[in-house]
Every structure is written in structure tokens, then in C-alpha cells.
Amino acid sequence: MRAVVQRVTRAAVRVAGAVVGAVDGPGLVVLVGVTDGDGPTQVEYVARKVADLRILRDERSAAEVGAPVLVISQFTLYGDVRKGRRPTWNAAAPGPVAQPLVEAVVEALRGHGLQVQTGVFGADMAVELVNDGPVTILLESAP
Questions:
Q1: Does the predicted TM-score (pTM) go above 0.90?
Q2: I need a labelling partner for 40 at 20 to 30 A (CA). Which of 3, 15, 85, 111 fits?
Q3: E strand map for 16-143
Q4: What residue ranges in 17-124 does DSSP mark as E strands?
Q5: DSSP code of residue 93
Q6: Which of 49, 26, 47, 71 minimizes the C-alpha distance to 137?
Q7: Catalytic positions
Q8: Residue 83: DSSP 8-state
Q9: What is the DSSP pairing of strand 18-33 with strand 2-15?
Q10: Do 109 and 50 touch, CB atoms closer than 8 A?
């Protein structure tokens, strides 16, 4: 499982022009990609790391300050561009496998006491954010 964590001052995700999830004020945007073989171990690792990362102002974590989190599924995190000019998505888990795991990450983050909003799995989403710092962290769970 891969996650790109961005510290933001605000963010929103829209589907068909309507806001479906947003962060107002300092928080995190987390893009989550799932690969074959991911399961509960990877879900908890990513959720714990996101909750406890000390990347907010004054080296605080989202769990410490109750910062909001916007989670967006993103299979393209497993795009492979090593050959040719077109990415392949072979390493990305198919939707029926990935969706429950992304939802499990959301629930695990809520279990860590965080307020979490989401995009819509599989939808064509427009993500708008103001990266604070900028701070962007790539998390990759162990297989």
C-alpha cells in the first residue's frame, strides 16, 4: 500500500462539480493506492503512520491536534512508467479488492480519533488543495 500525505491549509474534492469532501483549516490530504497482497496489516500501518506523523506545525501530529484528514483513493500511485511512454497499472489492485481496503484505512483513521472525509471511489474527481510548506511525504507499507 502506498500513501502520499500532504500537509494542507485547505483542500476539497469534487465529483461532477459538487464538493464531496473537504478540509477547512490545517490538516492532511492522503492519497491511497492499493496493490495485490495488501490487507489488514498494511491498512493499520498506513493509518497509524498518518495519524502519528509529526508533520503539522510545531512538529505536531494529526492525532495530537485533531486535524482533519481528506482521504482519496488513487490507483495511479502504482503506475509504472519504466517502459515506453504509457503507464501500466498492473501493480494496482482491481477496484473490488482496493475499495474495501481504502475504506478500511478511513475507518482505521477514525479509530485513531481523526475526523476523516473522503472522495468517491472510482469517480472522476477534481482535487484542489493548498499544500502547506510544502510538505509531502510518501508512505509505503512493507509487504
A1: yes
A2: 15
A3: 18-33, 69-73, 116-118, 125-140
A4: 18-33, 69-73, 116-118
A5: P
A6: 49
A7: 74-76
A8: S
A9: antiparallel
A10: yes
Q: Per the structure block, which three cell numbers stand in for 6?
A: 500532504
Rounded CA separation 102/126 (Å)? 18
Residue 60, C-alpha cell as written in the block: 505536531
Cell 461532477, located at residue: 16
- SS3 state at 95: helix
For residue 142, the model assigns a pLDDT of 75
Rounded Cα distance between 129 and 64, Å, is 22
User: What is the reported pLDDT for 105?
Assistant: 98
Per-residue confidence (pLDDT) for residue 115, from 0 to 100: 97
**CA distance linking residue 17 with residue 25, whole number of Å:** 21
* Beta strands 69-73; 116-118: pairing state: parallel
Q: Which residues have a Cβ under 8 Å from the Cβ of 41 and sit 6 or more positions away?
A: 141
Q: What is the pLDDT of residue 25?
A: 85
Distances (CA, A) of 37 to 34, 124, 133: 9, 26, 34
User: Which cell goes with 123?
Assistant: 469517480
Task: Show the low-confidence residues of the chain (pLDDT under 70).
Answer: 143
